[in-house]
Design goal:
12% strand; alpha+beta; 102 residues; three-stranded antiparallel β-sheet
Length: 102
C-alpha cells in the first residue's frame, strides 16, 4: 500500500511495521541523505529466527562451504565480505546515487 506524506510517496516495507520513502517523491526529487541513511536496510523484512526488524551485525569470521567447496551465500571470510558489510555498501551506493559499490 502507498500513501502521500508532505508530498512524498510512502510505501510499506516488506513485513516491517514502519514506512519507507519510495525512490521518488511526488515532486520529482528523491529523498534526502538523512532519509536514505535512516531507512538503510529497510525492506529486508523481519528476521525469521528472532523477529528483529533492523539489520543485525554479523560477527562470523568464516562462512559455510557447500559440498562442491564453493561458498553458496557469497561470503568467504568476515574481514573481506559479510552480510553487514554488504548492507553498508548498498546503503552508501544508494546515498551516493551510484549503481553499486566496489
Amino acid at each position: 500500500a502507498t500513501m502521500m506524506l508532505h508530498g512524498k510517496v510512502l510505501r510499506r516495507c516488506g513485513g516491517l511495521g514502519h514506512r519507507c520513502l519510495a525512490s521518488a517523491a511526488a515532486t520529482g526529487s528523491g529523498p534526502g541523505i538523512a532519509t536514505l541513511l535512516a531507512h538503510a536496510g529497510c525492506g529486508a523484512g523481519v528476521d525469521p529466527q528472532f523477529g528483529g526488524v533492523s539489520a543485525p551485525i554479523h560477527l562470523a569470521s568464516t562462512f559455510e562451504r557447500g559440498a562442491d567447496l564453493e561458498y553458496p551465500r557469497g561470503h568467504v571470510y568476515g574481514r573481506t565480505s559479510n552480510p553487514t558489510r554488504s548492507l553498508l555498501e548498498e546503503t552508501l551506493a544508494q546515498v551516493e546515487q551510484g549503481e553499486g559499490a566496489a
